[in-house]
Amino acid sequence: MTAPLIRPATLADVEAMxxxxxxxxxxxxxFTPAPERQRRGLTRLLDDPARRGALxxxxxAGEVIGMITIQLLVSTAEGGDSGxxxxxxxxxxxxxxxxxxxxxxxxxEWARARGATRVQLLADRENAPALGFYARLGWARTQLVxxxxxxx
Length: 152
Known about the structure:
Elements: E1 5-8, H1 14-25, H2 35-46, E2 52-58, E3 64-75, E4 80-90, H3 99-113, E5 119-121, H4 128-136
Parallel strand pairs: 4-5
Antiparallel strand pairs: 1-2, 2-3, 3-4
Helix pairs in contact: 1-2
C-alpha cells in the first residue's frame, strides 16, 4: 500500500473533513460534532490561505483519510508569528501507519515557511493515545492551562 499524499485542502475536501471532525469531536470532551458549524469553520479557514491552512491525507484512490488545520497568530512572547495546530485526525483503519506524523510534520513546515518560530497545540487531557503520540514526536507539555469563555 502506498503512503497517502499529503496536500493542501480545498473546498472540494470540506465534506470529507466535516466527517473527520465528527470522528475527532466524538472523543473530545469539550466539543460536539455539529456538521453545519464545522462546514462553516472549514470554509472560513480555507478562505485565507496566507494566515490559515488545512492539509489532508489522501489515498491513491482519492479518499481523504486524515486532516490537520493550522493558523498563524502573533505571539508577543516570540515577537512574531506562532502556529496553532488544531484538528489532527486520521481515520481509525489508517492509524499507526505514519499518516498522523506526516500531517503534523507538514503543518509544522507550513508554519516555518511563513516565519513562525513556535508551534503549539491543544489536546484532550483524557486522550492518552494522542498524548503519547505527541510525546513520542518530541512535543512537550507546558505549564499553561487552556481557559475559554463561550456564549459571546
